[in-house]
Amino acid sequence: MQLTDFTQFTGSCFNGEPASCACACPFGLDVRGFAEKCEKGRWNAAWKAYKTAVVFPAVVADLCPAPCREHCQRADLGGAVDIPGLEKAAIRFARKKAEGYNVPPRTQTVAVVGAGACGLSAALNLALKKYAVTVFDRLPGWGGSLRDDPRFGEYDEEFRFQFSAVKEGFCSFVFEHEVTEAELAPFDAVYFATGEGGFRLEGGKYFSGGPCAGWSLMEGIAMGPEASKVIEAFLMTGRADPILPHEHAAHCDRYVSHRGVEPAAPSETETEAGAMAEAARCMKCDCTDCIDSCIMLQHYRKKPHGLAREAYADSAAAPPIATQSLVRQTYSCTNCGRCNAVCPTNANLGAMFMLSRSDRFRRNTGPKAFHDFWLREMDFSAGEAAAALAPKGKETCSYAFFPGCRLGMSAPGLVKKAYRFLQEATGGDTGLMLGCCGVPALWAGDLERLQSNIDRLRGDWERLGKPTLVYACATCERTLREYLPEIPLVSLYRKMAEAGLQPAEPSFGEAAVFDPCAAREDSELRGAVRDLAAAAGTALTEIGGGSRCCGFGGHIQVPNPELFQRFGEEAAAGAEAPYVVYCINCREVFRTRGKECRHILETYFGSEEGPLPSILEKRHNALVLKQELLKEEWDVDFTPETQPWDALRLAIPDELREKMERTLVSVADLQEAVWHAETGGDKLIGDDGWRLASLVKSVVTYWVQYRPSGEGDENSFEVAAVYSHRMKWRGAEIR
Amino acid sequence: MDGMNWKCFKCGETLVKKAVVFEYMNRSFSHEVPVCPKCGKVFISEELAEGRMAEVEAALEDK
Known about the structure:
B: 63 residues; 32% strand; elongated
């Protein structure tokens, strides 16, 4: 992987870069940093920063046309910040000190032609570096065009003050003298700052800046430090680079959203307190929209550019020799797309994290345990629980229902009823495709598994005569659109709204529609669900700022359970009203957290009563759904595979069940462990008849403490403890 | 459960503490845990799995 593979997602981001005011500043003053110092009353530091940028503070504060103000983002929120006022305040309140550099004297000589502000700016910088500088001017003193200004007295004082830092003998002035080319010949370098239309020579050791070279007075002053650098480099290497003013733009697009910022009235800058108050109005504009919108980015406190660099560094690291720094954060992204949606320049951290996941998977450096459960679930959904059939008696169909994997697992009755509705609505022309869109593989970074799933889906779709897929899950839609763009898609909800379906039960009187992240860009889908909710008599309110991610996406539950919990809590707190959802995973997240919610399909097809199914029950639901649908609609027998341990009955206390769901441990894994221990004898026995079995399943080792329930049933056990770990042991060392 | 007197069912032996080599994320290290002195059957307690082991797993995953 190259650095650009990662920075392509953050290249447009301007976080940490100069604000719009600084972009417009001919001196490139870090206005944000300057205002911050002023706000704190750190006048000495503010003045020093200002002096470093502008060379002659008193001159520039007075004469600069202040393009910064035109680009101040405070303008519409109480008026642009008075930056020139703050500059003058810094000059007024700072304890000023003219300082030179502690460097050895140079042997070369430099002539500066023109003692105006531009020439003086270059002469000062060169003389402070201890080059022997001679300044020529045909006028009787310095100042050039400023000599006629009524405030020249102040400028003269500023020049004197700044030149007081130059050591004796490093800068001499020759006034009232028209210098000739012959007189310039002995100098090692010559800088022309002769004013608009002024005389200058070009090439070789001759340099020029300011109005005589076509730049403005402010640009000319700003060019002084740059001229000294270029001339110094020329004197050391003989290479003559062009002298250009600080890069500044009349327009820039670094505008921040400033959501929720209140207008603030301007303050005077004559007094210290007034100037500090005015500086406090500066919003220190820096775009942090993605970070502000994401609790994961806030948690890790890293900035977009740094993240891209770290992701690249991780891709180049070869653990255990070199360590990686971004593992946990990479696997803590829910891929919700919000960072991209709020970004003014279309940066996409979510896509960068997904690229990083696939890179880690390919290089085998990502922890397998993070996504192992979900990949096993995907293999089940795309394997034993999958089916692709045209309606009975037909080879092909115009539509095929693709409910997605989780809907049938959590609420199988809804899939059945929705399929029957579609059959009726399409005159019996809807087939069925049970399976998985492949997003668990995408989130795990396993692109090969994703591709083989896509190929399988494409094969099924072609076999059914390329029907329009009717999807029920926004994430399926997003994945199919991306990887199978040839498949026409329509939402189940649109079909329901078009058919004028009547609700099966009363809906909430008032509710907020909670949109799944994958539906963010899909106004059609969002509209269809709102139409259905409204048609069911629900007065809809919108969630302020839009729905937040419920935390299910990206499968962060194993790598970051705390963040998973927080995502769910924040999403549930989006509105007081109950939620109408149209993603079965959102429903599960909210029901687990006690947030009142209902899937829109429940309103139209009847609620799915009872507690949330467990991991094992979900698989069971998917298989029974397939079995019943195949029997009832196609008269085809389907017998799910059975395992010898299926017959074991485990009595598991509620708090243990809750822990198992939270840590994604299936009862089936415990049954398997107990069965192996009981049939093979590979177990530990403890006090009171307790037994301990372990089972290594893929990358996780499960332990279960159990004993016969003593009810005379040899297949019945009570469970006291369930836990797991990811390390494996190689065996006891012989010592 | 640490306090329980665990025995290996197959060998009938009381477990003894021995150094066992563990592997995770391409790194290996040894740690003393109760083991059957005869067949080498290992016992990992809930406290160990969810305490120190989980900490080390997280640290290795983050590297």
